[in-house]
């Protein structure tokens, strides 16, 4: 699990004074936080608090208005950086799965490996199959996304991100669009990933997952981080009024 | 006499059928079938037309339509991508092109290309001879229409598809080519097939550029036959041959639309 990484001492993700505005509307108002190697950081907060925007800034799907973001010690907000290369090392899982509906499950997993990583077909297929086994969907490789349940689609989406062999994974409310009975399968896959030492940043409403798996819990509201700490501490003994009032509504 | 609404509807429908039958009988009895056959279905003219009308005219109509459509599709895709570009001048140029060629009659475009261009640039010719001119003319007109369809199709692909592709490290153009455009074309397959039907019919306007001999398409061929034999038979046959192309395409469009409806 301890393969040598670039600048091992650097945090996996380091966000410094991040601001993001959409026109007049300032969504992120100065965010400072970091995720260490192998850490699972969960981000909670009311909708509109900026947590999804923060996540999308980390792989530059949203361009920060100001501030700096370092991924494994490299500043990705540097204008000279190869954004595509940065993104290919950061896996992302979306609330709406975003599988490619015109491609089979297997092709969903191999296309970026071949087009971006430049892997040969045989190698890409082998890696894809390994990851499908991991998420428990080995026998569905020829299916199209429309023929899978939401939970299955999300597990395929996780396998798709893993097939790029990323250094870290971002999850944007991965279970929010799922029927309640399908949430467990997806969370199980994420727990496995965490136990393998994957660095993860998870925007979620699953407090149970945050408590059980998370190394750190961040509570955001109105574009700022209100408080952060060990999940059990924040959930059981919130320090701020806003955290208390949010938790009283969701717990 | 009181009738239930249902009974009344039945009687009313019966009356409609009766009027129809009486009307048909009158038409059949009154019409001079001999004259009609001589005007519209002269068997000697029909015999004279085959097989040329198929091997030359129908073949050319199909070739002109398909090559014009293909060029129009490529042009339309380029224009659509220009319309969606973040570079202002590209957007303006595409918009101007689309508005211009959708706004003026197709016939004017054809005349301009066939006769205007040689006047404007003496000694220069549009490459590819007749087929080149026809392809360019039909492609420009078709492309201007298809550009807007393609643009709408690209915009109908959910934003999350581009985000997912980018998050896997694909460049913007790679994501467009591999992920967004294939999905856009699935969405717009029915309207694009409609455009092919329209272009097939527009290819008839090409008779204006003076197609002769082996270059004649259906309309030109039908017109010549009409003049030679002093009978409308030629045009009737040609009209039917257009339907041989367009009706199956219409059926395909309807199937595609039904399928798309089901998949929704």
- Sequence of secondary-structure elements of chain B: HHHHHHHHHHHH
Give the integer mean of the pLDDT values of chain A.
Answer: 91
- Helical content of chain A stands at 25-40%
- Alpha-carbon distance between the two ends of chain B: 51 Å
- Rg of chain B computed from alpha carbons, rounded to a whole number of angstroms: 25 Å
What oligomerization state is this entry in?
A: heterodimer
Largest sheet of chain A: 6 strands, mixed
Number of distinct helices of chain A: 9
Envelope shape of chain B: flat
N- to C-terminal separation of chain A? 35 Å
Helix- and strand-based class of chain B?
mainly alpha
Largest sheet of chain B: none
Return Rg of chain A in Å: 18 Å
**Helix content range of chain B:** over 70%
Structural class of chain A: alpha/beta
Give the percentage of residues in beta strands of chain A: 15-25%
Q: Give the beta-strand count of chain B.
A: 0
> Could you tell me the mean pLDDT of chain B?
89
List keywords for this structure.
heterodimer; A: 251 residues; alpha/beta; 6-stranded mixed β-sheet; 4-stranded antiparallel β-sheet; 10 strands; globular; disordered N terminus; B: 264 residues; mainly alpha; 12 helices; 81% helix; flat
């Amino acid at each position: 699990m301890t393969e040598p990484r670039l600048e091992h001492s650097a945090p996996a993700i380091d966000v410094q004074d991040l601001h993001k505005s959409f026109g007049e509307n300032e969504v992120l108002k100065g965010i400072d936080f970091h995720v260490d190697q192998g850490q699972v950081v969960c981000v909670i907060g009311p909708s509109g608090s900026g947590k999804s925007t923060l996540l999308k800034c980390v792989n530059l799907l949203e361009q920060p208005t100001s501030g700096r973001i370092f991924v494994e010690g490299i500043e990705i907000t540097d204008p000279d950086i190869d954004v595509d290369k940065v993104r290919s090392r950061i896996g992302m899982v979306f609330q709406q799965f975003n599988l490619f509906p015109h491609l089979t499950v297997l092709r969903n997993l191999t296309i970026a490996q071949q087009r971006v990583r430049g892997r040969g077909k045989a190698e890409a297929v082998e890696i894809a199959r390994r990851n499908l086994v991991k998420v428990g969907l080995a026998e569905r490789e020829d299916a199209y996304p429309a023929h899978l349940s939401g939970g299955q689609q999300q597990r395929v989406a996780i396998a798709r991100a893993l097939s790029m062999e990323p250094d870290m994974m971002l999850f944007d409310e991965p279970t929010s669009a799922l029927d309640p009975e399908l949430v467990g399968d997806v969370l199980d896959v994420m727990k496995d990933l965490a136990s393998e030492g994957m660095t993860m940043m998870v925007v979620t409403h699953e407090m149970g997952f945050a408590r059980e798996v998370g190394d750190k819990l961040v509570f955001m509201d109105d574009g700022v981080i209100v408080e952060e700490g060990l999940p059990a501490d924040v959930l059981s003994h919130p320090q701020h009024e806003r955290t208390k009032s949010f938790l009283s509504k969701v717990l | 006499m009181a009738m239930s609404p249902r009974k009344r509807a039945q009687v009313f429908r019966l009356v409609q059928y009766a009027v129809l039958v009486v009307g048909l009988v009158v038409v059949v009895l009154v019409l001079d079938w001999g004259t009609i056959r001589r005007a519209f279905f002269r068997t000697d003219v029909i015999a004279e037309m085959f097989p040329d009308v198929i091997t030359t005219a129908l073949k050319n109509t199909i070739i002109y339509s398909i090559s014009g459509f293909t060029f129009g599709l490529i042009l339309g895709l380029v224009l659509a991508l220009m319309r969606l570009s973040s570079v202002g001048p590209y957007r303006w140029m595409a918009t101007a092109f689309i508005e211009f060629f959708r706004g003026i009659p197709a016939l004017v475009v054809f005349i301009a290309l066939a006769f205007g261009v040689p006047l404007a640039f003496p000694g220069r010719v549009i490459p590819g001879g007749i087929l080149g001119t026809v392809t360019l003319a039909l492609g420009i007109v078709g492309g201007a229409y298809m550009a807007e369809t393609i643009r709408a199709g690209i915009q109908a692909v959910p934003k999350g598809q581009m985000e997912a592709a980018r998050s896997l490290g694909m460049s913007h153009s790679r994501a467009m080519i591999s992920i967004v455009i294939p999905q856009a074309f699935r969405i717009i397959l029915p309207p694009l097939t409609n455009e092919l039907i329209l272009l097939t019919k527009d290819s008839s306007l090409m008779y204006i550029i003076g197609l002769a001999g082996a270059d004649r398409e259906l309309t030109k061929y039908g017109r010549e036959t009409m003049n030679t034999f002093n009978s409308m038979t030629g045009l009737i046959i040609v009209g039917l041959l257009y339907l041989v192309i367009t009706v199956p395409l219409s059926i395909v469009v309807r199937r595609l639309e039904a399928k798309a409806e089901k998949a929704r």
